[in-house]
Design a protein that fits this description.
The protein is mainly alpha-helical and 358 residues long. One of its GO terms (biological process) is DNA-templated transcription termination.
Amino acid sequence: MANLFSRYLHTIPSPSPFKSSIIDYLTESLGFSKPRALSLSTRFSSSETNPQSVIQLLKSLGFNSTDIQNWVDESPQILFADAEKTLKPRIQFFQNLGLAGSELSKFISKNPGYLSNRFERLKPCVDVIKELMNHDNENLIRTLTRCNWADIKQPVTRISANIKYLEQCGIVGSQLVTITTRQPRLLIMGESELKDLVSKVLDMGFSLDSRMLVHALYTLSCMSDETIKRKFKLFQSFGFTKVECLDMFKRAPGLFRVSESKLNLGIEFFLNTVKFDKAVLVRRPTCLMLSLEERVIPRYKILNILTSKKILKKTPKFLNVMWLPEDEFLEKFISKNRDYADELLLAYKCGDLVVPKE
């Protein structure tokens, strides 16, 4: 194999002095391997822009060699850009949006093509999204970093059409800004794909005038049909009917974004330890979205300790206790009982998830 490779290398013409200097620059300045530098050097002729000027510009703007090497590896066209006339204005464009330093570096690392030929597709998209975001650069940047806007044909046409369709579905104003910031992929979906997604939400019992429609749309856009089916099966394995599952989803669409392991532990705990009736979870499915480790189990422990010591005149409903603000819970159930406050606080904060037996 080694002899074959050696013979192959002899078939490659020796690089010209110009290309030799390019190869040396890429290996010495950016740390490229010799084969990769040789491959990149074939893109240049003596009449083309010298890559040194591009790399020097990027370094002068504070980007390090590792970043630059990664960008060039992903998008070699960067090295062909005119440093002053093309590359510098593009970087300034992103800086004017509020991206700078490490944030700008991370943004370009995700889509290095934005510094080369894809920029011309991205720029008009930014104008449309900026208008949607009411010129809020923070939301604009958050939206831009979560999606690749330049891989589709006529992106502005598609984005504008999808915004119009979502508005026709009643998703307007702050709701539209929120969902597109969290799931910007909705704006570049194909027309039929987006309409199918909305149809799925409507088939699950939501209406176009429902305030929960946008939350359901976001949830379904995050998950595959298979994942949704698995979560329905998980609930049904605990005895919930399909109708009850749909009811819970309608009340709290975000519930189905909770991991299967957390759902399993939560349902098990509420039904078998707290002894909730299933109807309680159907009415208040958001219980299953609370942190078991940080809120539910510690509070259940405190309530059990207070009950076992006969400190409470009347045991409150645990459903209500779970939803108390933290400071109110501490004051009402720990600080108020001064004789046991240290013991209760230790039990609450120790991280021991073993629930005392009644």
